[in-house]
Amino acid sequence: MNSRTVLFGGTFDPVHNAHLEIARAAKGRFGLRCVLFVPAANPPHKSHGAQASYEDRVRMLQLSCAGEPGFEVSRIEQTSEARPSYSIDTIEKVRASGIMELSFLIGADAFAEITTWHRWQDVVSLVEFIVVTRPGAVYQIPPQATVHELGGLQIPVSSSEIRQRLAEGDRDVPVPPAVQRYIHEHALYA
Predict the structure, then answer these.
(1) Which of 145, 148, 172, 174 lies at a CB distance of 3.0 to 4.6 Å from 17, suitable for a disulfide?
(2) Using CA atoms, how far apart are residues 13 and 40, in angstroms rounded to an integer?
(3) Does 88 score more than 80 pLDDT?
(4) Mean of all residue pLDDT scores within the chain
(5) Domain positions in the chain
(6) Which residues are CB-contacts of 163 (< 8 A; sequence separation ≥ 6)?
(7) Cα-flanking dihedrals φ and ψ of residue 71, to 5°?
(8) With contact defined as beta carbons under 8 Å apart, do 94 and 79 qualify?
């Protein structure tokens, strides 16, 4: 897999230490060339959208990826349109840029819903999946999907918990120090 790029999409609202731990583990375990973080401009599975702006989420990702070999942040989903950011569109844009060997890094809960995605059959035919598993995670692997499991990680935190803690005035949240400074300097999630 060492010539592969893995797409790591999400709202990253905000990016936190567990996101980076997952990316490092996937890169190391599967010998990936690059982890391409793709913040969703208009996530279709989030009815309320993101709390922080697209630009703020991109900047927090850039700060967290600085100094991490093989970590890149993509603005490929940035658009002036209000239409949803579908994974298939992102995959096709990345492939059109010349990157053909793609994997998709995804949590088991999200992968369990893969057959509800827009053009999901095309998604599973164009990428291999690295599914982050946890004890008790249950999902079905659709026909033609290639899945590699990434287990054994402790992921005790979520972005929604971090947003709640920040809204309550907690300044000690599990995000990289540069991201924490950015959040406070820009009064995000207060």
Answers:
(1) 174
(2) 10
(3) yes
(4) 90
(5) 5-154
(6) 13, 14, 51, 189
(7) -100, 130
(8) no
